[in-house]
Amino acid sequence: MKYFILAKEAIRRFWRRTHLNQIIILLLSLSILIGLAYFAYLASAANVESLKEGLSQSTVIYDKDEDEASKISANRIEGVSIDKVPSNLQNAIIAIEDHRFKEHKGFDVQGIMRAVFLNLKSGRISAGGSTITQQLTKVALLSPERTFKRKLEELFLAVEMEKTYSKDEILEMYMNQVYFGSGAYGVQNASRKYFGKDVENITLSEAATLAGIINRPTALDPNNNYDGAMKRRDVVLGQMKKYNMISDQQYQDAVAEKIVLNDKGGDPLKGKYPYYVDAVINEAINLYGYTQDELLTKGYKIYTEMDQNLQSSLEKVYENNSLFPVSSDGTLAQSGAVLLDPSSGGLRALVGGRGDHTFRAYNRATQLTAQPGSVMKPLAVYIPALETGYTVQSKLKDEADLSYDGYQPKNYNNQYLGEVPMYKAVEDSLNVPAVWLLNEIGLNKGIDSVTRFGLPLQDKDKNLSLALGGTRSGYSPKQMAEAYAVFANGGQRVQSHIITKIVGPTGNFEVEVKPKKTRVTDRKTAEQMTSMLLNVVESGTGRNAQINGYTIAGKTGSTQLPYEDIKEGTKDQWFVGYTPNLVGAVWLGYDITDRNHYLKGKSGDTVVPVFRAIMSGALPHVEKMSFETKSINQHLQEQQQDNISIKEKFDKFDEKMIKEAEKWKEKLEKGKGNLKKFEEKLKDIYNKYRH
Asked: Hey, what's the signal peptide range on this chain (predicted)?
């Protein structure tokens, strides 16, 4: 205890001698000043001058050529000037949200102190104390998070905005930006949504109702909570009376008024290319951290990979009901499709469903999780086999009784040839040779290959049924198009994407996309695979995809029904095909498959014609290119021609040799006669010599 007291005294003397109190206060003050300077710098650097122009415009979607393609205008149909907003609505908003709005310079010290006290008492950020100007900075320039850092940013930006804009301009921007529930942003949308009239025609009671919704737009939506909205309306009217904005009689009349709801808001979210726009919003949210509210309210410029010609032609295909199966009860067979540029990874067009479109509903082009069936075979089996040393002519077993620990694959036609060359197994989409080959090269090689192609697998997918696409993991047309783009792109996979850049409402570049590129396999292997997939369209299961004047490679796929007694039918059907510069992937099926809702017939007769229609509409808008490789059929035909040519050469050579032999025979016969004469002459000379 003695040593503790001595140590305490020594520390106290040192503290006094070195003036640590003053140093700590100085450091704290300096830190605060640096922090304030930092936030002041952020506020001054923000381009608030262009904010009003940005908020008066819709979020615009641009295509690959940077031409305007679509608009998102859910936050405001056009926005309204403050002159068209009744003074009662302006006053109602000021009374309930910021009654000192006309007096402060962007922030209200009284409001802030009150909020700080409530936050300290609760131990968290529960009260904002925000002015209308601060709320505008939050919805227009900042993220919606509730932190002290964001609160400081909000405060400094509010001061900067007050220097740039008048009170009327700030209030106008706020009224056109704020959310009123039920998908209605801005006072004009809200007035049409709830009362079926333009905002300039609303009553005092209706104005108070709208102002009351702002604080809790979901909870106080009068469509869902009429009584709560009316109680809040009365609070707003009370505040207006308190601040002498209305008389006692006006208050009494407004409280007594029965609010009649009349929805004439329509669907302001519905614009051109709805499924593509949905995918744009989803990508911005999921990959780049934006919120739906931000994207629908801040007037962004979003540049994409869309080709409007391809998008329009794809949508026309999906409007043609005759191309799609019809169920007995009228339930739509659903489908999703994408068109992708293999060299850039850009999604040129997509449609995510059939029937009426709902904003940000399930998008089967990008969000589908369906088993891929036989379109998995090239990725899981044939590419790794070619890499291992197999060739397109390699013989594969095709026997009915092949079994692997109880797993016994069957060919769809129940026919078996004993053995087939690899290209024939691909062309006719035979199951048994694919499973046999995966087992031969090793399952791990197949798993590695599928992963390289960008398709995730679960542990339960890692078995030999992977060869036939029998996975628990499902994939979308977008994922399958990206995978098959590797073949068109010489073995390189480019990350598929929609957005190329995002420009904020103040003109700042917030996102610039550089898609990741990955070498999946070498060019020679990719070309060998393309040679076999060209056969699929020329003479195999995808022959109905042929288009005059174009060469297409591709693969069919289908998945089995879970009902053993239904022999002729499939659950999912796929076709993924490509030219050198355009990849198309199509899925066809029902959202819920049962005994009455399934696909009848083979994929070659059902989904392939849909693919053909899609490519027939798209290819005229794309530069025509030819594959550097030829189909196996062409190779075999050329080889046959070469063999014929060689035989003909040998035949001509034989004929020439026979003629030459006959000439030599004649010469030889003549030579024999001459030789006999010479022999007789020699005999005469010899006889003369003897005598």
From this structure: none
